[in-house]
Amino acid sequence: MSKQKKVRLLKFLSVVVSGINVVISLLIMLNKYQIRKDKKQIADEGHAPLDEN
Hints:
- The protein is an all-alpha fold.
- The protein has a domain at 16-46.
- The chain has one helix at residues 3-45.
- It starts with a helix and ends in an 8-residue tail after the last helix.
């Protein structure tokens, strides 16, 4: 494999990895938001205290 192809492959892989990283970060943020929303809903219903973290 030529040096130019290796460089192109590495750039492509870095783009793919950073894309996956962004997706995982978004999923984590969405999950934290969902947990916070669920805790607030439970507290509003009066079943459990609202845990402020």
